[in-house]
Design goal:
148 residues, globular, alpha/beta
Length: 148
Amino acid sequence: MTLFFPDLNVWLALSDIGHEHCGEAWNWMSSLPGDARLLFSRYTQIGLLRLLVTPAVMGNATLSLGKAWSVYDRWLEDPRVEFYPEPREADLTFRRFTAPFKTQKASKAVGDCWLLACASEIDARLVTFDRALYELARKQNQPAVLPS
């Protein structure tokens, strides 16, 4: 079984038909082998809910929180999708991934490094449209996928 750990931009693209990467995301998901699993963490769950209810992100398609929960619940009905709690060991890996940024003001790096740490600890491939995150994963020897 292959585990995939989509970041927020992938979950949003899969959840919002109006997203610029929706087609690419669905093409990627459709190409996965039958035993593939896509994993949510608490971070990606909260992030997806937050983005779906944010007018600056969703525009006229902004959802109520109840409808955003319905989107998330539909994902969990898909047998390929699971909620996976962060492993206890993720903290040490998180610190290792953030080490290259220790002298920088790097707010985006904090979330990206958390995603990398979780993916690493659960032995999953990070999936992202963010090329900088993809390159960071490669530099850290963490398997990553750019959907196309």
